[in-house]
Amino acid sequence: MAGPMRISGLASGLDTETMIQKLMKAERSPMEKLLRKRQKEEWTRDSYREQNALLLELNNKVSKLRLTSDFTKQKVSSSDDAKVTASITKKNSTTQYDVSNVQLAKPGTGVSVKFKVSDDIKDSNTEINSSFDFTLKGNDGSDEVTISVGEKDTIESVLNKINSESSKTGVKAFYSNTDKSIVFTSQVPPTEENKSLVSAIQITTSSTDNKLKITNGEVKQSANDADPIINDFSKDQVFKGIVKQAGKATVNGVEFALDSKNTLDFDGMSFTFKDNIGVGDKNVVISTVKDTESVMTAIKEFVDTYNKVIDQFNNKLTEKVYRDFYPLIDEEKEAMKEKQIDKWEEKAKSGLLKRDSILSDVLTQMRSSFYTPVEGVEPPKNTLASIGIGPKKSDGLGSKFDYMENGKIHIDEEKLKDALSNDQERVIALFTNGSGITSGSDSFKSQGLAQRIYSQTNAAMKKIGEKAGRTGTTSDNSLISKDIRDINTRIKAWENKLKDKETSLWKKYSAMEQAINKLNAQGSNLLSKFGA
């Protein structure tokens, strides 16, 4: 439906459009407040979600320190990586493995017979210009096949005929353009029980003519005593390949068979054998030791992330609030440059989470997790400080914390390494104790650090999710999102109300202009009559 006709102030001399714009600006003031409120709510929601993402990162780091198995990892070393390597697949019973007498497994190979093609045959597409038959059989095949060659055949077409019967004969043929040769290859290797027949290639022709002009044949990978020179197809020729070789290795005095990949699973270890070890060769020693480096890395990554949380949360809790800087609406942004908008909004966003109770509470709880002794561990070695993990001390006596750091944690690496190497059980207890207890003040005291932080971050993330939702969720019933939906409904109502108001004003001013025009017309008519 078309809107009302707008008549400007030509008759009245008034700037109707400007007057209506000013009137509407005053009318729009309540809706602009809603637009600013919605933007502030969106900023607050996004800031909460940013903090939640950081808590999730911390939660993921500390989850790698909650279980005993996280601290009992081992690493493997080999005295000769070029010959034997190993990895741990599950709990093993010993820490050292002596490897000797290794014979690598080798796959068997079928025979390959190579025939040189004479110079009369230019390439694989040259016609043979002769007709004859020959029979072909590999001893792994079920049938003997007769190959018929016609005058129009080429080497390529003959090879296609041979290869099309490979499912029966077990033999394939190839042509090499590089040295002009034909290679017949058996697909299945021989066995130890039957070296002379299995996987052999038999090529037979009744003609004594050199029909394919094949000369100087030579056998590759042959283990028989026959003359390897084939001058033509006038004789039956049988050649055998290499028999498959089983692999074996001796580990801690016990001989084991190897699989085809030269690997062995034994005592929670997976061994990979790369080279033979003869009777007179030096044995290879595989050793397993505590992997304190990976545990150190996991603890340092956790502490680094924890300190990042401390910094960011403290900044958010203490940010200055700039009350004169409010969210900008589109009309205001249009009058500003991009850099001006960025600087303005930086201050408008500042302090959105100032003194936030969720962030403040989780910081207090996590600090307490580091300071509170772990029940069940014998004092005075029942604190994280006893293994070199704790806040920085501000005085030389080491009795006061440096409160300027807001509870950031530092690691005495030498002290922690020593504890991991020589007092592993205590370190495990300080991190993992009480994994089955989930609530109550007593549970907190008996829990190790990782259990405490894991529970606290989970609880905080849940609270933030209830208040601000999670990024990427399709259904968001968080408190802030509900507020935003309510504001959107109110904005829509105001948009309709303002549209109706503007339409009403234009109707009134247009009617006034029409009335003035009518009066002016009547006056002009009277004047014209008097003038007459």
From TrEMBL:
Signal peptide: none
PANTHER family tied to this protein: FLAGELLAR CAP/ASSEMBLY PROTEIN FLID, FLAGELLAR HOOK-ASSOCIATED PROTEIN 2
Annotated family: Belongs to the FliD family.
Function of the molecule: Required for morphogenesis and for the elongation of the flagellar filament by facilitating polymerization of the flagellin monomers at the tip of growing filament. Forms a capping structure, which prevents flagellin subunits (transported through the central channel of the flagellum) from leaking out without polymerization at the distal end.
Keyword annotations from UniProtKB, A to Z: Bacterial flagellum, Cell projection, Cilium, Coiled coil, Flagellum, Secreted
Protein name, UniProt field: Flagellar hook-associated protein 2
Residues in Flagellar hook-associated protein 2 C-terminal domain copies: 248-521
Cell compartment(s), UniProt: Secreted; Bacterial flagellum
